[in-house]
């Protein structure tokens, strides 16, 4: 009997052309579907909570698919991981109701962007963080982040996934935190943002624009205008490799 499964998926996005399947490129969806076929899956396409871009990482992507699997979610997780390449791993597998949809049922998505503050290359961190120097002012970064919270037209920060689609989104939380990286012994700045949904390239433009303010290359007032009354798309895009989809939450999930 075919069962609908929900999988929490993690991947290093470095070698992928994005999440969504493409005919002539290596993608996360393509690799997962190939792995599923090796363990007896006969479906045509899996569903995903979001379409991460080329180079973007994930620790909490959510996918779903039907499978006639007879051995339970734990064994399915083990079998799937045995078939997946080293840069993708299923973290957890659950049986869910037939009406579950990983994208349309999502109540919120959380992304994290990492900035490494260092004047020289740090080879062990470069593929997971954007190296910026001099270090941006954290107070200015958080002043920008506070402006993002709430319901706004984010047309200055991104475009809708479908032409002519709405650009209004609700940001539930946004903020920066300074941390000391144990590997590089350098200071990192972590931007965490949670919203009901995101526009195309929205987080990366948010980061780029905030860093410009934090480095005194742009004013806080100009940033506020972009949030309150967008006129045109902001120039500048933070590199993809600093971004990670960390969590997708659903309305029926228990809250801590």
Describe the 3D structure.
The protein has about 260 residues and is α+β, with helices and mostly antiparallel strands. The protein folds into 2 domains: about 5-95, Pseudouridine synthase I, catalytic domain, N-terminal subdomain (Alpha-Beta Plaits, 2-Layer Sandwich), CATH 3.30.70.580; about 105-250, Pseudouridine synthase I, catalytic domain, C-terminal subdomain (Alpha-Beta Plaits), CATH 3.30.70.660. Helix content is about 20%, strand content about 30%. The protein has helices at about 30-40, 70-85, 140-150, 200-215, 220-230, and strands spanning about 5-10, 45-50, 55-65, 90-95, 105-115, 130, 150-155, 170-180, 185-195, 245-250. Helix 3 (about 140-150) runs antiparallel to helix 4 and helix 3 runs parallel beside helix 5. The longest helix has 13 residues, at about 200-215. The two termini are about 35 Å apart.
